[in-house]
Amino acid sequence: MSDKETMEKQLEARLKEWKADIDKMEAKAKKASADYQAQYEDEIKRLREKQDEANEQLKKLQASSASAWEDVRKGAEQSMTAMQKAVKDAWSRFS
After folding, report:
1. What's the pLDDT at 38?
2. How many CA atoms does the CB half-sphere of 59 hold within 13 Å?
3. Buried/exposed code over 16-32 (b: 16+ C-beta within 10 A; e: otherwise)
4. At what angle do helices 3-31 and 34-63 cross, to 10 degrees?
5. What is the mean pLDDT, run by run of 10 residues, along the chain of 95 residues?
6. Hey, how many other C-beta atoms are within 10 angstroms of the C-beta on 15?
7. Which of 48, 58, 71, 89 has the most C-beta neighbours closer than 10 Å?
8. What pLDDT score does 48 carry?
9. What pLDDT sits at residue 67?
């Protein structure tokens, strides 16, 4: 498997994990008091936006040629790092 394919698989796996995390947060938000529910919804909206950005990076990575994927890789890595931090920060607020 090439480095490009490995990166694609990693990003796909992480996106699935993050979707599951966000879904858990949504379930927890529904059980929260009205005051916290609004905060959780804002946080979830922000996470969904980051998730959309990561999905766009995955699409760019998948569409890139083998020779041009290095340029796209940097954006994908930045997106993955930002998403991972956002999910971690959100969980710390949800706990």
Report:
1. 84
2. 6
3. eebeebbeebeebbeee
4. 170
5. 84 92 90 83 91 90 79 83 89 79
6. 18
7. 58
8. 93
9. 73
Tokens standing for 43?
A: 């946080």
Q: Is 42 exposed, middle or buried (0-12, 13-18, 19+ CB in 10 A)?
A: exposed
The pLDDT, as a whole number, for residue 29 is 85
Residue recorded with tokens 């498997």:
1
Length of the chain, please? Answer: 95
- The dihedral built from the CA positions of residue 18, 76, 51 and 11, taken in this order, carries a sign that is negative
For 42, phi and psi rounded to 5 degrees?
A: -65, -45
Q: Which two tokens stand for residue 82?
A: 């930002």
Prediction pTM value: 0.80
